[in-house]
């Protein structure tokens, strides 16, 4: 089976040689033998069982991959690059708001509004900043297994950061920004807060919101 040979070659790129020889090679060898001995529908069922067993084994062995040590200095280089570019891009995106707010409101209110704008600016900046760390991970020609694992770990961390940032922090900060602007415009501290739109709902609230379940008229 060419498919199993390709699968073993791919697994060797991610898992250490001990795991490949002790777990995946015997499993794939048994799968190939059972598949060759079977006929018709039994061969199809054998393929399904083998693929399922291989998938379960990959899932079970994946924590060891994600916990493997990174190449020396890789994480520090990547995080430094990410921090620098996120800061620069966030500052560039906030510059028009700083100019617009300057002199219009009290200094403390303006600073508070800029703080509330940070999640929105970072939500745009972080994905672009992550694209700048590829060369910080690859330190040599031809990436090693450790470098590929480091890239996967950083990608998982990026997804977690963006999930929290876009799913909860940005909606809450955006709603609070609207509240402050509304109260500043009316001059009433007890002015009722504007109604929350879809942009001001967290992921959980979006899932539960009836407006997304009601078809447009």
Descriptive notes:
- The structure is a single chain.
- This protein is an all-alpha fold.
- Helix content is 75%, strand content 0%.
- The protein has 8 helices and no strands.
- It is elongated and about 80 Å long.
- The mean pLDDT is 84.
Strand content bin: under 5%
State the helical fraction.
Answer: over 70%
| Count of helical stretches | 8
According to DSSP, the number of beta strands is 0
Low-confidence stretches: none
List descriptors:
217 residues; mainly alpha; 0% strand
Short overview:
By secondary structure, the protein is mostly helical.
Q: Would you spell out the secondary-structure blueprint of this structure?
A:
Elements: H1 2-12, H2 17-37, H3 41-66, H4 74-101, H5 107-130, H6 134-137, H7 145-186, H8 203-208
Helix pairs in contact: 1-2, 2-3, 4-5, 5-7
